[in-house]
From TrEMBL:
<protein>
    <submittedName>
        <fullName>Putative superoxide reductase</fullName>
        <ecNumber>1.15.1.2</ecNumber>
    </submittedName>
</protein>
<keyword id="KW-0249">Electron transport</keyword>
<dbReference type="Pfam" id="PF01880">
    <property type="entry name" value="Desulfoferrodox"/>
</dbReference>
<dbReference type="InterPro" id="IPR051233">
    <property type="entry name" value="Desulfoferrodoxin_SOR"/>
</dbReference>
<dbReference type="InterPro" id="IPR036073">
    <property type="entry name" value="Desulfoferrodoxin_Fe-bd_dom_sf"/>
</dbReference>
<dbReference type="GO" id="GO:0050605">
    <property type="term" value="F:superoxide reductase activity"/>
</dbReference>
<keyword id="KW-0408">Iron</keyword>
<dbReference type="InterPro" id="IPR002742">
    <property type="entry name" value="Desulfoferrodoxin_Fe-bd_dom"/>
</dbReference>
<keyword id="KW-0479">Metal-binding</keyword>
<keyword id="KW-0813">Transport</keyword>
<dbReference type="GO" id="GO:0005506">
    <property type="term" value="F:iron ion binding"/>
</dbReference>
<feature type="domain" description="Desulfoferrodoxin ferrous iron-binding">
    <location>
        <begin position="10"/>
        <end position="123"/>
    </location>
</feature>
<comment type="similarity">
    <text>Belongs to the desulfoferrodoxin family.</text>
</comment>
<keyword id="KW-0560">Oxidoreductase</keyword>
Length: 131
């Protein structure tokens, strides 16, 4: 078994589990920019004790590089759980995060998200770095 066999992908406009990467298509080398990663942008994902997004991880793979770089991890730990029972708690984490990056090479931003019921989902967005 390989990771490729368990990671699912789809268009985020039709599938609520796919992470959505929002970042500029082009950036200047060495300048800061913000990347927003969310799940449930077009179709809301449930956020209940029983069914929720546990984490989103963001990577960057340079065009000419062999390996991806682990850029950010967003962990969501509150899903309405409480001593009183499921969905009775005072706090819910929404599956969204942002990272501020600087790149020196063009490549691809990759995101993976984990749903506690439906597994791991992926998305990718190319990004061009200009001098």
């Amino acid at each position: 078994m390989k990771f490729a066999e368990i990671i699912q992908s789809a268009d985020w406009k039709t599938e609520k589990h796919v992470p959505v990467i929002e970042a500029p298509a082009k950036v200047k080398a060495g300048e800061k920019f913000t990347v927003e990663v969310t799940v449930g942008k077009e179709i809301a994902h449930p956020n209940t004790t029983e069914h929720h997004i546990r984490w989103i991880r963001l990577y960057f793979k340079p065009e000419d590089g062999k390996f991806a770089y682990d850029v950010a991890l967003f962990q969501f730990d509150a899903h309405g759980e409480a001593v009183e029972g499921p969905n009775k708690g005072p706090a819910y984490s929404e599956p969204a995060g942002h990272a501020v990056l600087k790149l020196n090479a063009s490549g691809t931003l990759l995101a993976a998200s984990y749903c506690n019921i439906h597994g791991v989902w992926e998305a990718a967005k190319p990004i061009k770095v200009e001098s």
